Amino acid sequence: MSRRNRKWVGLVALVAILIVAGLVIAACGSSSSSSSSSPSSAGTPKAGGTYNFPLGAEPISIEPLNTQESEGANVEHQIFQGLEILKLQPDGTTQAVPDLADGPPQVNSNATVFTFKIKQGVMFGPPVNREVTAQDFVDSFNYVAQAKNQSATVYILAPVLGIDAKTGYAGKNGLTGVKALDKYTLQITLSYPFADFPATLVHPITHVFPVDYANKIGRKAFFDKPVGTGPYMVQDWTHNQSVTLVKNPSYWNTSGSGDSAKPGNVDTINMPIYTDTSTEWLAFQKGTLDYSAVPAGNVHAAENNANVKSGAWTAKAYASTAVYFISVAMNHPMLGGANQGPNLPIRAALNYAADRTAVCNIVNEGVTIPSDEIVPVTIPGYKPGLNPYPYDPAKAQPELDKFTGTLPTNIPYWYNSGSSHDKIAQVLIAGWTKAMPKLSFKLNGIETNSYWTQCGQGKAPALFRMGWIADYPSIDNFIYLFTTQGGLYGSYSRYSNPEVDKLFKQARSTLDQTQRFALYNQAQSLILADAPCVPVYTYRDFRVTNNKIGGFSYNSFGLINMWDVWVK
C-alpha cells in the first residue's frame, strides 16, 4: 500500500518517516533539505484567505470511528479534539499533552485508574452548539467500541475495562471502565496496568463527538459531514474530488490559550484529492497548491529548484515516528529457533553487514536515516547504541564463522511488491554477500494483500520486509512488536522471550517515567541481542511548501495544525 496512505493502524505494518540529529543526517549523505529553516512564519498572522492542501487519496473516514490513514487524519485533526493532543518538543520528540483535559490525569498507584478533569466551556460546533461534558466522552468511547459499528482502530481501546479480549470490541455491558463521575470528571479504568495510557488518547478513535446528534441524523450523514469541537468544520465532502473546511464560528478556545488548537486564521481549507503524486507536484509548481509531496526520483531536483534557492519555497524532510526493518521468521529452522541458539551468529552477521547507509542514499535519495534501533528518535525514551551488532562489515564473517552447522543457501527474502522494497532488498543483499561471499539469497515479491496474510499466518520462511508506524507517542508501541503477543501480530516474527515480556509488563506498571524508560530499553537491548530482526532505517517525509503561507508546522505523525497557517 502507498506510503502516502499511511495507516495509524500499526498492525498493518506500513512504512513511515523520521527525524534525527544533524550529525546523523549528514551520515546519510544528504540533509534532504535545501533550506535549513521551516516555511517562513515571519510577520504577523492575519485572518482570511484559503489554504490549499492536497490529499493523496480519498479518505477512508474523517471522523473518529474509522480514521486510520494520513489523508483522513489530516482532515479529522482540524475538526475533532480529545483528552490529549500531539505536541512537537524542542528535543525533536513528539509527546502527548492535555487538550480537552484540564491538566494531567490523577493516576492510582498501579496505573490502572486515570481520572481526568474536562475543560469547561468546550462546545460542539454547528448545528449542535452545546457544551461538552464527561458523559459525551463516555458515549463516544462506547459508540466506537460497539461491534456493530465495526471500527478498524478499536484496538487502541483494548486496555479499557469492558473490552472483550476475544472480539476486541465492547462486551454486552459496554465499556464498564469509562464513567462520568460528575459533569466535568471522567474516570477510565483499565483491565491491566498501563502507565503510558494517556499517550494513546491522541488517537482519533478517542476524540469526542456528539453521539446523540450522530444517532439522530444517521451513520451515513454523520460520516459525510461530522461535527466536532475543533476550529474548523466540514462545508463539503465531494467524494473522490475534494474536502472543504471552513471556520467553526462557535469554536470554544477564543483566547487561543494552552496547547489546544487556536481559532483558525484562514477562512477556508481547500483539500483537493490527487491520487497521483506527479500530478500533485505539477499542480504545486503551477501555484494551485500550497504544499506537495515529491515523486520518487525527484527529491534532488526539488532541492535544487530555483524557487527553493530563492526562498519562495521550502523543500524539507520532516520528522516522523516509524521504522523499516527486516523480520526474521523465528518459527523457521533456517534462521530462527532458540533466541541464543545455533542460528544466532547468522542473524548477528546480517546485522553487522546491513549497509543501511547505501539503502538510504541509493534507494531513498538521502531522505531516510540509517538506524539499527527498533525505536525511532522521535519517541520519548529513545536511547541510542543498544544494538550489539552495529554496522561493521569486517565483523560479519568472523561472526558467521561461529556458526557450526551447514550454511543455508538461497535464503528466502520476502517483500510486498511496490514502494521500492525490491531495490532495498537488492542493496542489502549486495552488502551481505560482499561481506559474506558464501551466503546466497532468493528474492520473492508478493502482492500486498497476500503478503500480509501470509506473514500473519507465519508462512514466511526466513527473512521478510516489515515496518511500523506509531499509533501513539510511546516507546511501549515499539517494544510491543517483539513481545510474545507482538511477535504474532506486530513484527510477525514469532519471536518470544519471557524476560522481554516480564520487563515489558513491569514497565507498563511503572509510574516513574525515567524508570519506565529504563525498563523498556532493557527489553529492547535483549531483543536486539537475540536479533529477531535487522533494523534498516527510520523515515522522514520530504515535502515542498509555498512560503506565501506562514505558520506551517508538520509533526512527526504527519499532521499539520492548519489553524496556525495564514496567507501572507
Structure, explained:
Helix 11 (356-363) packs antiparallel against helix 13 and helix 17 (498-508) runs antiparallel to helix 18. This protein has 18 helices and 21 strands. With 568 residues, it is α+β, with helices and mostly antiparallel strands. It has a 6-stranded mixed β-sheet with strand order 14-18-13-17-15-16, with helices on both faces. A hairpin with a 5-residue loop joins strand 2 (84-88) and strand 3 (94-98).
Number of helices: 18
Specify the structural class.
Answer: alpha+beta
Anisotropy-based shape: globular
Low-confidence stretches: 1-37
Q: Note the gap between the termini.
A: 37 Å
**What is the CATH T-level topology of the domain at 322-538?**
Dipeptide-binding Protein, domain 3
What order do the strands of the largest sheet run in, or round the barrel if closed? 14-18-13-17-15-16
Give the total of beta strands.
Answer: 21
Rg over CA atoms, rounded to whole Å, is 24 Å
Strand percentage, roughly? 15-25%
Rounded mean pLDDT is 92
Give the % helix: 25-40%
> CATH first level of the domain at 322-538: which class?
Alpha Beta
Major β-sheet annotation: 6 strands, mixed
Tell me the CATH superfamily of the domain at 322-538.
Answer: Dipeptide-binding Protein, Domain 3
CATH architecture of the domain at 322-538: Roll
